[in-house]
Design a protein that fits this description.
The protein has helices at 8-19, 32-37, 42-67, 80-90, 96-109, 116-123, 127-161, 177-186, 206-220, 252-262, 273-285, 302-310, 342-345, and strands at 195-199, 225-230, 234-236, 242-244, 289-294, 317-322, 332-336. With 346 residues, the chain is α/β, with parallel strands linked by helices. The protein folds into two domains: 3-156, no CATH class; 162-345, Rossmann fold (3-Layer(aba) Sandwich), CATH 3.40.50. Strands 2-5-6-1-7 form a five-stranded parallel β-sheet, sandwiched between helices. Strands 3-4 form a two-stranded antiparallel sheet. Strand 3 and strand 4 (242-244) form a beta hairpin. Helix 6 (116-123) packs across helix 7 and helix 8 (177-186) packs across helix 9. The model is unreliable at 341-346 (pLDDT under 50).
Length: 346
């Protein structure tokens, strides 16, 4: 949902509709927060939206009470008298934020309904001034929901960016944080080649480093897409046995096909590799992308592959992992991965 569409006016309509037991506007049903909470049908989403917004308001009211030094108390008094007493207590601290959350909560959310006049009398202010507190509370609620939705946007965006990444095969990247920071910096600098090769012995952690980097950049959400293409032919099991990998990318044609598929350009299927890559260039140039090719040394005809991919480097950044050095290509920045130190290997 568009963050700017989450307004105090929309929330007022929604809360007022619930108060009258009427269907609220559908706008808030598109919140990414609701997708995380589950619920497929509109009716399910309406229930989850109602419960979630009420919970947000209750949490913020209790937090404001704690900040004002009020003793811990429930937000759900069971009688009109206790409700009026709770409002009076909230308005006795000369705390604008607490008054706003309290006015909002008892005007629209509390199970015990008091009229505007009764609420204003409990707060010892005029109905007009109480309505202003309610409006401030609606603005605070809109701001809180916008923040929650922005966070949900970020999580959803990171999930989308991770969809082509392999699952991590490590619980912790031992000894790799310094390299990870260095690699992150290289891929964000403008004065270094846009192709980076992570090089080192087999099993030293090159793939884990690339996977950790991709995950970190996905969490930042600054990229339009991350492609992961594996040229690995085999992998080492937990028992130390080599197992073949099904359908690895072996050639330029394979890599171009996988790249087109991951970028959503399936209509390019059947075109020659060079034409595929040429058609992908404007797609990559439209927004920042990172393309990772793992175990590059196992791909066929590197002499043709690297120059072909280099034609895209003005439009995207490339990260390779390889056991063999790519030092003969001046437009590739090399990052050697040293063996683990004794301390990191323990």
């Amino acid at each position: 949902m568009d963050i700017d569409a989450i307004t105090a006016a929309l929330l007022k309509k929604t809360l007022a509709a619930w108060q009258r037991a009427q269907p609220p506007p559908d706008d808030l049903l598109e919140l990414d927060v609701l997708r995380e909470l589950g619920g497929q049908s509109p009716a399910e989403r309406q229930i989850r939206l109602h419960d979630w917004i009420n919970q947000v308001a209750r949490v913020q009211l209790q937090r404001s009470r704690r900040m004002a030094g009020r003793p811990k108390t429930t937000t759900a008094p069971l009688s009109r008298q206790k409700t009026a007493a709770a409002v009076a207590a909230d308005f006795s601290h000369d705390n604008a934020r607490l008054e706003a959350w309290s006015a909002l909560y008892y005007r629209y959310i509390s199970d015990v309904r008091l009229s505007l006049d009764d609420l204003a009398q409990a707060a010892a202010i005029t109905p007009r001034h109480f309505s202003r507190r309610v409006q401030t509370g609606l603005s605070l609620l809109a701001d809180r929901i916008r923040r929650e939705e922005m966070a949900a946007h970020g999580r959803r965006r990171a999930q989308q960016l991770r969809r082509h990444l392999p699952p991590p095969d490590y619980a912790r990247l031992f000894g790799g944080e310094t390299l990870l920071q260095q690699l992150t910096g290289l891929l964000q600098q403008e004065d270094v080649p846009r192709m980076v090769s992570v090089e080192g012995l087999g099993g030293i952690g090159k793939t884990a480093l690339a996977r950790a980097l991709a995950g970190r950049l996905a969490d930042k959400g600054n990229l339009a897409g991350i492609a992961w293409i594996s040229a690995r032919h085999e992998w080492l099991t937990d028992r130390g046995e080599l197992q073949p990998v099904a359908d690895p990318a072996r050639s330029l044609a394979d890599i171009a096909a996988r790249l087109a598929e991951q970028l959503g350009q399936t209509e390019l299927a059947g075109l020659p590799p060079a034409e595929k890559l040429a058609r992908l260039q404007p797609v990559l140039a439209a927004a920042p992308h990172l393309i990772i090719i793992d175990n590059l040394e196992t791909a066929e005809d590197l002499a043709a592959l690297i120059p072909a991919l280099a034609r895209l480097q003005d439009s995207a950044r490339f990260l390779f992992t390889s056991r063999h050095t790519l030092s003969r290509y001046p437009y590739v920045h090399r990052l050697p991965v040293p063996p683990l130190s004794l301390a990191d290997s323990r």
